[in-house]
Amino acid sequence: MTNRLLAFFLGALGLAGGIASACTVPVFRYALDRWPADPYRLEAPAGWMEGKAGAGLRKFLDENRTELEVLPLAEAGASARLLMPEDGPVVWSGTLDENATALLESPVRRELARRLLAGESMVWVMVSSGDDHADRKFEGILNARLEYLQGVAAIPEQDPTDPESTLGPGPGLRVGFSFMKINRDDPEEQVFLRMLAGPQGELLEKEEPFGGVVFGRGRVLGAWPAGELNEEGIDEVSLFLLGACSCRVKFQNPGWDLGIALDWDEALLAAQMEWEKNVDGSSEENEGGEPAPVEDKEPESRPEVVRIEGGEIPAGADADGERKSLKAHAAVGPVISALVALTGVLALCCLVVGRGGAKGS
After folding, report:
1. Domains in the chain: how many in total?
2. Residues 216-242: tens digit of each pLDDT
3. 327 and 241 within one domain
4. In-domain check, residue 60
5. Which of 6, 106, 165, 324 has the fewest C-beta atoms under 10 angstroms from its C-beta?
């Protein structure tokens, strides 16, 4: 594991390690249930948003119940800018027009939301470099490792009677990995690519592919160049998201939010209804005694995606009985043991803050 990725897990384990929480909901699902996305900031000409020119964007935000922090431009005639939450970087600058809604939606972001609402635990996104050899090599590593993880990874056993581990509305809980490959020159995805890179904006300047992982309501756990994301790193990132959510305070967890205009609460209710309908229908058989076919409702045109199927984890089932537990890379064990001993105090603080009703809990 590289120094940069190791530093990422020093922070992550400092929050999640040391003391086990009573909550057994996996990190990816806890985030989907309980972590609303932080609002992006739009610097716009004074009065633009309230006037006729901004009516389309206002309607779009209202329909999707999406918050956007609008700030007046400091200088007259300056370009409008879209900035990431808090003190995040600029992801777009230019002149606002009737296409302003594209700042918060794109084909890839719609596909990401669809997959997360369908129950995928996480979506690994690869951004190509234009170097065919490097891109094929990195894509092969990601696909092979995700296929392996799909066969051996498991989520914590869930107790449906435990109030600390109650799931919110949404799809069934399962292990599921998705892979998406994005061309870094795609004109429709330039804003999204800057959001994905987030504070690591230099990734878009390097002549090598990079990968990021998205979970929850469009939260990026991290983004890394291909040279720093080996099999061990893919395993550790994935296991962190599949593990029990020990720290339930959003701002004390690693990552940043994508700008996605979507009413997540309403979408999660619809996702639960769809999942329950499919579960009920899966037991129906046709006249020949075979399960009734499920209609493929995926759009004809969508980003290049390789889906790796995963089975449902029934509530209360023994996860070890369903699939083998994943064994971490041999070199990781001593590191994690040392980190757990060093970070117990931080985990205790995190747990106390989380139970005190801090933001994101």
Report:
1. 2
2. 999 999 999 999 999 999 999 999 999
3. yes
4. yes
5. 324
